[in-house]
Amino acid sequence: MSLARTIAQSRRERLLALLADGAFHSGERLAKRLRISRAGIWKAIESLREMGIEVQSVPRQGYRLPNPVDLLDKDELKEAMSAATRDRLDRTDVLLTVDSTNRHVIDNPVVESGRGQVCITELQTAGRGRRGRSWLAPFGSGICLSIGWQFAEAPPDFSALSLAVGVSAARALKRFGADVKLKWPNDLLWQQRKLGGILIEMRGESAGPAHVVIGIGVNMRMPSATRIALAEKQAALIADVHEILRDRTPTRNQLTGAFVDEIVTMLQTFATRGFDPFIDDWRQLDSLAGASVKVIGASATTFGIARGVDRDGTLLVDVDGELRRFVSGEVSLRAVK
To answer: Among 49, 77, 88, 314, which residue has the least CB neighbours within 10 Å?
Structure first.
């Protein structure tokens, strides 16, 4: 990055820090704090708007964000992790904007076996969910997190990794009092509404080192307009952490630190023992256990009763007395109304 772009990026970040309280700040006061001209402030505000960050301006009152924003902070994030987790991470990137946190981690140099790296961003311009869907997260409204990890070799039950990540994410939320459910293969639910999702990407061979990138998107405090847009686009209602915990809602740094803690701990166990230590917890959190479901495949739709998962992470469905197996990544699952 050039010096000019670095200065502009730093200026945007400092400006956001001043506006994060949601109160009005005059252009004159902002210019003094940042030691630039009023014109420089206007230019920086326009730059934020071009990034998709809404900044309101009112004559004789100044500029403000529509709501206070809990900004991500590298030092606070590291403080929210345990010392054991910090010791396992080779790098922690906290970004203002990126196309995809998963792609950012994939593009970084691969870490040594048994070690990881983290990337989290305020804005993600090309975030992806399962089956190529986009992941929408307006500025300050959620957590867009990726964790890269290097296995010495592909672990047993690798196909069940997303389910083990789901258990870890549920444990992290439980630390703050949020009880969530899991929907096969990679959704976090609260009251049957989507709270978050998981996307796993892997680089490696069947034998030898395997590099995995775990992407997690979680709704923290979603604007009503975004809720409507998501419902129209995905035909699914959503939930957010603030709705669940209200005045007990942790900061995004605190919750992200808990996610990283639980997932890094899980990965060390999963490397040698696979899904087995996590399957009982997953079954307890299974939102579809015993429910009538339909499984939508590439060429057919199957109706039956969900019977949990096998030890390799495949979905088990009772279809007229026959137990059928469905593999992650090839089907989608919806409860029958």
So the answer is: 49
From the candidates 64, 128, 194, 252, which is the catalytic residue?
Answer: 194
Collect all residues with Cβ–Cβ distance below 8 Å to 54 and sequence separation of at least 6: 65, 66, 139
Q: What is the CATH number of domain 3-64?
A: 1.10.10.10
State mean pLDDT over 42-63: 94
Q: Where are the domains of the chain?
A: 3-64, 74-283, 288-335
Note if 130 is an active site residue: yes
The model carries a pTM of: 0.90
The yes-or-no answer on residue 43 being catalytic is: no
Q: What are phi and psi of 278, to 5 degrees?
A: -115, -10
33, 227, 324, 334: which one is catalytic? 334
Q: Could you tell me the fold of the domain covering 74-283?
A: BirA Bifunctional Protein; domain 2 (3.30.930)
pLDDT tens by residue, 96-130 = 999 999 999 999 998 999 999 999 999 988 755 55
For the question of residue 221 being annotated catalytic, the response is no
CATH placement of domain 288-335: 2.30.30.100
